[in-house]
Amino acid sequence: GDSVTQMEGPVTLSEEAFLTINCTYTATGYPSLFWYVQYPGEGLQLLLKATKADDKGSNKGFEATYRKETTSFHLEKGSVQVSDSAVYFCALSRTQGGSEKLVFGKGMKLTVNP
Amino acid sequence: EAGVAQSPRYKIIEKRQSVAFWCNPISGHATLYWYQQILGQGPKLLIQFQNNGVVDDSQLPKDRFSAERLKGVDSTLKIQPAKLEDSAVYLCASSLARLTYEQYFGPGTRLTVT
User: Fold this and answer.
1) I need a surface site. Which of A31, A92, A103, B38 has the fewest CB within 10 A?
2) Going residue by residue through chain B (114 aa), what tens digit of pLDDT does each one get?
3) Are B85 and B96 contacting, i.e. CB atoms less than 8 angstroms apart?
4) Inter-chain touch A100–B98, beta carbons under 8 Å
């Protein structure tokens, strides 16, 4: 079945450091890909998305490119801030049986220190 | 715009007891989801409603879990009787339509079964 694999954390970075969170997926066909973020005490929020190969999603300085050849959707940010401390989830979505299903990775906790 | 509301935020019960969670989706959102998020894992879909009808409950342990969405708005998720392995965060999400990519998540209910 469909699955998402993320690099494991937790990860601690200093402010202004470069961030990469690896994500690879297994799926038949071409799912849509997402990054969700969960700030402390809050619900998951959609950070960015890509719906087809070579699409680049971007938001709040974060970027991820849908790479069909490597089945990857790695999240990057050039300079992290303390406010980026959160748990990041990679997910895929496909339409099945007339409904849409989200499959999540395990999540990676990021802590950014000043 | 008000977000997805959930209550209670925290609940501690003993095994074999029953518990119920409540969710109020964003106004106008026809599709409602319940997810289970066990510590260290990504959310797993339990059940999906379209208005007041069930679209997918293939992952719902129906011997102990039940859910309803009366009048196509609020929803309740019940566990009876609870087991230790039910300890998790229960997330409610909603979206405008069944085939839309963006789901809006509530803050979740953290259940501890002792």
Assistant:
1) B38
2) 689 999 999 999 999 999 999 999 999 999 999 999 998 889 999 999 988 899 889 899 999 999 999 888 999 999 999 999 999 999 999 998 766 668 899 999 999 999
3) no
4) yes
